[in-house]
Amino acid sequence: MDEILKGLRASAEATRLRIIGLCAHAELTVSDLVEILGQSQPRISRHLKLLVEAGVLVRNQEGPWAWYRLPEEGVGGELARLIVDLLPPDDRKHAQDLKRLQAISEGWTARVADFFRQHAGDWERIRSLHADQKAVDSALLDALPGGPIESLLDIGTGAGHVLLLTGDRAQSAIGVDRSREMLNVARSNLFRAGLRHIQVRQADMMSLPFADGGFAAVTINMVLHFADRPDAVVAEAARMLGPGGRLVIVDFTPHHLEALREEQAHRWLGFDDDQIRSWCRAADLAWLPPRHLAGGSLTVALWSAERPVADASDAKDSSAVRLPGKVRARGRSTRQAKP
């Protein structure tokens, strides 16, 4: 009861209602909200502090930047979603806020386009050396568990490619990356795709900030060759899997393109099946048959392994594996309409 009252008191103010309505559509910074609402930074920060303390918003720090969004579970999250449902779509201020949010998102899109223009040449050169990207994407989807995926973690998410690819199947998902620049690209891509049930976080793939066994699926897509200790990355990914959860790794098989070390900072020139199998088995995962996709100078491999279901009770629990802070749609689509 106290949590509900605290959330209601914090929300019962015009500007704070507008903030809740905006954060239902996108993860936003103080600067974003200042620009949209036309109020001072100290005032917006005060509103945000009250909403976070009441559990109606959550705050995620990335270096000097703090991002705010609705909680995905708990009383505060449920209350926030009820409030959003009650906001009248024809309210003039709310409609103006969403128009300004759309304008800001177009600025994000322009920055993303500029980022990709700067790096497109390098990425296209690599893509030309391996199998068609559509074939790789199709194989990745086939390697994941069939049907809806309750909770997915994408390690080294970059621009959010895997999150976008699995957005319709994942009931909730989170992507992690060390680069704030890439996370901003991912946020913009997810916003434009309308995938409000997916989030991204800054984190080190060697030390993930989540409890053991919190995910039904984990992906490591074209990231392992950058790792100083790929075996430790696989072990950390395995720690994330609940009973019956599946790990899918996509990377190159061994090759001799030394230029990728200098030009793209690749730490490793591919991996063989035996290496990946040994790391998965060391993490107590059950090995599944790999798949190889030959291309030009590079062959892409998809390696999969599962966390065994120890007994019947674990099997029952595995059906309830959920992302920390999972969005619970309660009959509503996890894809929200764009503002």
From TrEMBL:
Bilayer-crossing regions: none
Disordered, as annotated region: 309-339
A Pfam family the protein falls into: Methyltransf_11
Entry's Gene Ontology molecular function annotations: DNA-binding transcription factor activity; S-adenosylmethionine-dependent methyltransferase activity
Domain HTH arsR-type: 1-90
Bias (Basic residues) ranges: 325-339
SMART domains, per the entry: HTH_ARSR (SM00418)
Secretion signal span: none
InterPro entries: ArsR-like_HTH, HTH_ArsR_DNA-bd_dom, Methyltransf_11, SAM-dependent_MTases_sf, WH-like_DNA-bd_sf, WH_DNA-bd_sf
CDD domains tied to this protein: AdoMet_MTases (cd02440), HTH_ARSR (cd00090)
PANTHER family named among the record's database cross-references: METHYLTRANSFERASE
Protein name as annotated: ArsR family transcriptional regulator
Organism listed in the record: Dongia mobilis
